[in-house]
Amino acid sequence: MKRLAAWIDKQFNLKCCRESIRKTLKNLGFSWKKARKLLNKANSKKRREFLEKLKGLLDDALHNGHLLIFIDEAHIHLDSDEGYGWSVKGERFWVSSNSPGRAKVSFYGIYVYNYAKVKIFPYLKADQFNPHSAG
To answer: Any transmembrane segments, and where (predicted)?
Structure first.
């Protein structure tokens, strides 16, 4: 609010207190909420297609006993905190998120759906195979 009050003063030469700004934002239909990350590389169409395919695989594993194994690399990133901010009431508050490059820890995870078992294999980088860590 402090920065917004300073910006309003600079842009419009209008001095107002933070409480006036808060009330005005609420009257305009905004609410204070926690932000959610929106990954910049996300593709809604591909995600929907993947979820449809996954639904079929899950049904097959549940009803026909086929073994379903999910393997993927994962990364723990040093990333920005979502924080809080003003957003239109009733709508999610998204904040843009870019992966911070190499500031991460990588590993491969295997999940056997039918048995609810997980195994983690640590790697220095997620673009290599290390047979010694797969024990």
So the answer is: none
